[in-house]
Design a protein that fits this description.
Elements lengths: L2 H17 L14 E2 H10 L6 H10 L5 E4 L2 E4 L20 E5 L4 H7 L9 E3 L3 H8 L6 E5 L1 H6 L4 E3 L5 E3 L7 E2 L5
Antiparallel strand pairs: 1-3, 2-3, 4-6, 5-8, 6-9, 7-8
Helix pairs in contact: 1-3
Protein name: Probable RNA 2'-phosphotransferase
Organism: Streptomyces malaysiense
GO molecular function, one term: NAD+ poly-ADP-ribosyltransferase activity
Length: 182
Amino acid sequence: MGERRTVKVSKYLSRHLRHQPARIGLTLDPAGWVDIDALITAAAEHGFPFTREELDRVVATNDKQRFTIEGTRIRANQGHSISVDLSLPPATPPPYLYHGTHPRALESIRATGLKPMNRHAVHLSSDRGTATRVGARRGRPVVLVVDTGAMHRDGHVFHVSANGVWLTAAVPPRYLCFPGPR
């Protein structure tokens, strides 16, 4: 399986395990899991066939480790816009985490902070490199530093997903460090 095919399968999985399972006739359980055979069958019936070997490769090689396989089930690790309960316990974050975004979003973020938008939580990265890659998806990235130590001391709750993405309900502007003019 080539790199282009791997990316296509990964995007297909993201769309249907995080956002639109019903579009191909899938129903996720309350924790976001679905039977792998049901997923493969539904995808084929809706014009996007892939094999179990391709699925395993995508899960094993995805740079962001977006998916987890447990026995005969698969789920997305985070980023859902549909209702799921990942049952992640509260976790103590490191003193600082990072959020990648694009310059057009800065004015809104300065005014209202980081919000989950159509997802369940705000996603934060433990390193600048990852945040830079996330922010670069929509052009020139901007990386914000989040004072998660202060947030945690002030009672904000954090969770960490199976692939190391930090999640929190929102980040008020006072906990953000904005880059200076370029």
